Amino acid sequence: MFFKISDLELGKVRFRETFAPGAIEFFDPQLRQKAPIEASGAAELSPSTREIRVSGNVTTRMEIACDRCLEPAAIPLAADFSLLYRPASMTPQHVEVLIAGEETEVGFYEGEGLELADVLREEVLLLLPMQRVCSEECKGICPVCGQNRNQVACNCHAELTDDRWAGLRNL
After folding, report:
1. pTM here?
2. β-pair type (113-115, 32-33)
3. d(CA 130, CA 112)
4. What DSSP line would sit under 51-101, residue for residue?
5. How does pLDDT run across 40-60, given as a tens digit for each residue?
6. Among candidate residues 25, 24, 2, the one with its CA nearest the CA of residue 15
């Protein structure tokens, strides 16, 4: 769905869209969409500033490698969102600009409007947790033998060393 400026000038545009897995590209081969992205909400234009505010909610399920064991980790996502987009033409070109406070949460659009798929891609990426784990009980990979500790109970003992004192061992 494309939010045209000309349509937004007439009033708020409501949406209820479903994007099948693969319909939105996330540019990360390890990140896979496992369920449809369902989004609903509204987009509206501020006539004085030409800013577009898109708000609503999104739900889906993504899959990515677990940070601890590298097995696939299913990550359900569901959240409300409110994103603000300004015309790119309003930003000074070739000039450094100090960005502070709420300005860090502003996106930009070019041309005659904004694509909903781009908004949802951004929102899904923002919703992903910093540490992606298959479960909180995940034991990870053994640093000695490389086995997945969730599948194999290895008896390796990792020796903790402090390399800052390595020079003293030579004395």
Report:
1. 0.75
2. unpaired
3. 34
4. -EEEEEEEEEEEEEE-TTT-SEEEEEEEEEEEEEEEEGGGSPTTS-----G
5. 999 998 888 888 889 999 999
6. 2
